[in-house]
Amino acid sequence: MAVDLKGMKTSTESPGSTFSGYPVLAAILVLLILIGWNIAASLPMHGADKAEKLVFVGLLILPILALAFLSAGFFMIQPNQAAVITLFGDYRGTERREGLRWVWPWMGKDKISARAHNIHSERVRTTSIRSA
User: Fold this and answer.
1) Which pTM value belongs to this model?
2) pLDDT for 125
């Protein structure tokens, strides 16, 4: 007997397009080193003019913004867990690979449980031990 599904939209799961978080974490560490080097190497002296101070602040703000951008995309997948990746509410895939993952910061990452649940099961009987 065939079931008629006219008018019903069937859903299918597709793999999410995320990246391993470890290379991005390495890029953040390099960026932190560059920020520290920039501060140490181009710190304006007390008698510096306004243009030098503005260049220093500009060169400091850009890496900090890049650091904030990269940090916003991290998420962690635990065992028996998945993450639904969305773009402005539109489904883009499901990520099931465990560990540190990274996705573009504007993508939504909603974690869900992927554990198997037994809905129908027999009642567990307990036996009482009577003391004699």
Assistant:
1) 0.63
2) 65
